[in-house]
Amino acid sequence: MTPPLAGAATNRRRFLGLTGLSAATVASGGLLTACGEGGGSKGAADDTNKLSGVLPAQGKLPDGIPQPDIASTRPVPDGYKKYPSNLVDVISDKPGGSGKEISAMTPAWGPAPPGLGQNAYLTAVNDELGIPVNFSIQDGLTYADKLNAMLGARDVPELLCVPQWEVEKLPRFADAVEALFEDLTDHLAGDKVNAYPMLATFPTGAWQNAVWNQRLMAIPNPTDGPYPWGLFYRKDLLDAKGLTYPKSIDELLAIGKQVTDTKAGVWAFSDIFAMVQMFHKSPASETGWRLKADGTPEHKYETPEFKAALEVMARIYKDGLVHPDLAASKGGDMKKLMESGRILFMQDGIGAWQGMQAQQQKVTPSFNLQPVPIFSATGGDPLVWGDDKPISYTFVKKGVGKERVEELLRVVNWCSAPFGTKEWHVREYGVEGKHHTMTADGPVKTDLGFKEIANQYFFVSGRSPVVQPWPETPNYVSDLLTYSNEMVKFMETNPWDGIKLEFPATYKSQTVPYEDKITDIVRGRRPLTEFDGLVTEWKTGGGGNEARDFLAKARSDAGK
Amino acid sequence: MNNTRPVWEEKPTAVGLAGKGAVLTVMALVVLIPLWSVLVTSLSSRKTINDAGGMVMVPKGIDASAYVTIFSGGIVTRALWVSTMVTVAGTLVSLTLTVLAAYGLSRPGSVGHRTLLFFFLLTFLIYPGLVPSYLVVTGVGLKDSLWALILPSAISVFNLVVVRGFFQGLPDELLDSARIDGAGEFRILWRIVLPLSRPVIAVVGLFYAVGYWNVWFSALLYIDSNDKFPIQRILQSMILQGQSPNFSGQSLGSLPPTQAIKMAVVMVTVAPIVLVYPFIQRHFVKGVIVGAIKG
User: Fold this and answer.
1) Which residues in chain A have Cβ-Cβ distances shorter than 8 Å to B217?
2) Which one of B45, B236, B252 would you mutate to disrupt binding with A, by most A Cβ within 10 Å of its Cβ?
3) Which of A17, A238, A483, A538 lies 20 to 30 Å from B83 when distance is taken between CA atoms?
C-alpha cells in the first residue's frame, strides 16, 4: 500500500496531465536512465543476509541515557513517559573543522522555515556543529519531482535526504545511487563505524535497507513506528452517543450508518480503504504481495480478500457514509473535518494522533482521539500491516574527497545522537527561551520554534528510535504503545524479509495509474464489474507478471 | 416584403430574458460562493471555523488576525514581494521580447522570418523535457535565481502568434506612409504600431502577468532558497499541509497554519488578478479575437 502521500502525488500527476506537463514528468523518469546501464529496469534484489561484511557493527547507547519506561516488542520502539531531567553531553568535539558550508536538501511539509542567516535555530545548531549547514527545504509533496530533475541532471547537494516512499517511486534509483553518491562502506562497515558512535546505535535492520548494489550507500533514518495506517475515531463523540468502536465489519458499517446525519452535516468516514483492506487481511508486503500455498507470489489484486474489501468500500461510498468533500477529491481537508466532528472516523498515519490531540484539546477540551484496534472481517486473528523500513536515507555526494566525507559523517553523527542527550535536545527543540520553554514535564515549543524548526537536521541523520513524551498529551505514550504492542502480535510476515528489492521499472511506473483506476471503482466512477478485466490487464500491461517472476527469483536466489 | 429577421435580432421575450438571467446568475454564484467562503473563512476566528467544519459560509464577527500574521514580515510577506518582482519584471521582459519578435515576424520582408516562425511554432509540438530544461537553466547559472522563473518562459509562442496576427492586420499603407516620412522600423513600431495595438498588448500583458504571478513548477525545480520562493509555492505547501506523512513518535509537519491563515493567503494570492482584470476586460474580446482571426 502506498503511504499517506499517494493521494497528493496522484492529484498532481493528474494536474500535470491536464496542463500538458505529464510528458515532462515522463521524460524526467526516462532520463534517469542516463545514470547508467544496468539491471534497474528489470529490478534488483540484494540479499541482506549476505551483507555482514558491509554493515556497521551494532554499538550500544551512550552511558547515562535513562532506561525507557515502557519496553516494546520490536519493531515497536520503547517509550519514555517522562522527559529526562539530566541530559547527557555525548559529543564534546565540534564535528566541523573546515568551515566550508555544507549544502543539504530535505523535505518539509507546510510553510518552509526561514533560511540560513534568518533562522536562529539553524544558527544555534550550526554553532554546535562548528560548520554552517545550508538547507534547501523542498515541499515534501512534490519532492519526487525535484529529485527526478536533480538526479537526471546529476546536480545533487553534499547531503541529500531521500524519503523511503520516494525510493519506491523513482525508476532505476539503484543506478542513480551508484552514479551520484559516495560509497560509505569503507567508512562505516564493521568496526569502522566506531568513529561515528551515534550511527552505531542504529538498528542493523535499518542499515540493511541502506545497501544498494551490495554496498553501503546511505545513512538510514530508522523508523519510530512500523504501522503505515491507523483508523482513528472521536471517542468523545461516540461516547456521547452511547456508542463504542466497531469490532467487526458489520459493526463498522452499522455505526457508519448510525452516525451519518447529512442534515446535521455529519458523515461517518474519510476514505478508509486501506483499513478496510487490512480488516479483510489483504496483503501489503512489498507493495501488496504474499505467497500462495504453492510458494508462488500473489498480488493483492488477485486475492479474494482484496476483492471483498473493494466491494465493502464501494458500498460505503455508495451508501454515502464518506464525507462528500473527501469523496469528491483526494485533496479534501480530512483532518479539519475530523477536528470539527464532521466525520467521526478517519484513516491516517499513526503520527497524526499526537499532533491533532495536542492542538484540538485547546479548542475542544473534551476532544479524545483514539485508534480502533484492528479486527478481522473474516474470522481468526487480524492482520496488521507494517514494516521496519527506514523513514528516509541520507546520501553523500560522490567525489567530494575522503576528508570531506569524514567531516560530513561527523556532522551526521552529531545530528544522530539519541533521545536523552543534549545534542538530541538541541536538534529537536533549539534554544531554551527562544524555541522552547522547559516545563516540569519537558520542553514545549514556542511559536518561533514551530516557525524555524522543520526537522532540517532530522532529515540528514537518524537516531536510535524511541517514543518520546509530550507534555501537552501526557497519556499519549502509554496509549500509543499499548495499541502498538497489542497490534504487533498480528503484524504481517514479509516473505521477502531480508531481501532489499527494487522492482522492475514498468511495475513501479504503473503502480499509481492502476491504483487510480481502483480508486475510480471504489468511488463509483467505474463499475465493479470492470475490476476483473483491470486485473487481467495489470498482469501484462502493469508489469504484474514481471514483478511476480522477479519476486519469485529474489526468494530463490536468497535460498528461501 | 419579408420582415422576418434572424431569431437573434428579435426582441427577446420576457421568458428568454429571465432564462438568460437565471443561467448567468447561477454561473456567477458558482464562482462567487467559493470566493465568498474563502473570504469569510479568512476573517473568522478558530472557533467559528471549527464549528463550521473547515469552511465558513456565514460570518460570525470579523477576526483579521490571519492577515496581521501573514503581513507581519514572515515568509508570506517575502513571497508576495518576490512574486510582485517576478511579475513586473517578467511581464516587461516578455512583452518587450514578444512585441519585437512579433513585429519582425509580421513584416513580409524580414530576413528569415518564415524559418524563424517555423522554429517558434515547432515548440508547440515538441517540449524539450524536464531534465534538458533543468540542465540548460543550471548550465547558464540561473539555478536559484529569480531569472530562472522568467527567462526560460520569456516568450509564449501562443502570445507571439496573437500579437503577430494583430500586427499583420494593421494597414500596410499606414506603415508605408511612415516609412515615406523617413521613420525607421523602431520608430514605426513605437510611434505607430504600439499605440494602435493597445488592446492586444493589454491582453497579452495580462496573460503574461497571470502566468508569472502563478509561477509554481519552475520555482519548484529551480529555486532552492526559501527566501526566493514565490507566493504560489508557499500557498501550495500551506493548503496541502494536512497531507504530511506521519510516524508514530513524530508528526513531520510543523505547527499547521490555521485555516484562516490558509484562506487569507488564498485571498492575497487571488486579489491582484481579480483587481486588475476589470481594467483589462474592455480590451479582452477585441484583443484576442482580432489577433486570432487575422494573420
Assistant:
1) 21, 145
2) B252
3) A17
Strands A102-108 and A133-139, by their bridges, are: parallel
Domain boundaries, chain B: 16-63, 73-293
Taking the C-alpha atoms of residue A502 and residue A169, their distance in angstroms, rounded to an integer, is 10
Q: Of the CATH numbers 3.30.1480.10, 1.10.8.80, 2.60.40.790, 1.10.3720.10, which one belongs to the domain with range B73-293?
A: 1.10.3720.10
> Number of A:B CB contacts under 8 A?
205
**Contact partners, residue A306, CB within 8 Å, separation at least 6:** A277, A280, A282, A300
Check if the beta carbon of residue B171 is closer than 8 Å to that of residue B106: no
Mean pLDDT rounded to a whole number for chain A? 88
Element (H, E) at B173: helix B172-180
What domains lie within chain A, and their CATH numbers?
6-226+389-473 (3.40.190.10), 230-385+492-557 (3.40.190.10)
Q: Do B247 and A391 touch (CB under 8 A)?
A: yes
Which residues make beta-bridge pairs with A432?
A: A436
> Above 0.85 for ipTM, yes or no?
no
A20 contacts on B by Cβ (under 8 Å) = 127
Give the pLDDT confidence score for residue A7 in this predicted structure: 31
Residue of A19, A28, A109, A470 to mutate, testing the B interface (most B Cβ within 10 Å of its Cβ): A109
The pLDDT of A208-223, averaged and rounded, is 93
User: Which residue in the set B54, B238, B252 is minimally distant from A340, CB to CB?
Assistant: B54
Average pLDDT over residues B26-42: 93
The pairing of beta strand A159-163 with beta strand A102-108: parallel
- The mean per-residue pLDDT over the stretch B169-180 comes to 89
CA distance B69 to chain A (A): 12
Burial class (CB in 10 A: 0-12, 13-18, 19+), A532: exposed
User: Using an 8 Å Cβ cutoff, are A423 and A185 in contact?
Assistant: no
Chain A residue numbers touching B46 (CB-CB < 8 A): 363
pLDDT score, position A144: 86
Cβ-defined contact of B226 to A137 (cutoff 8 Å):
yes
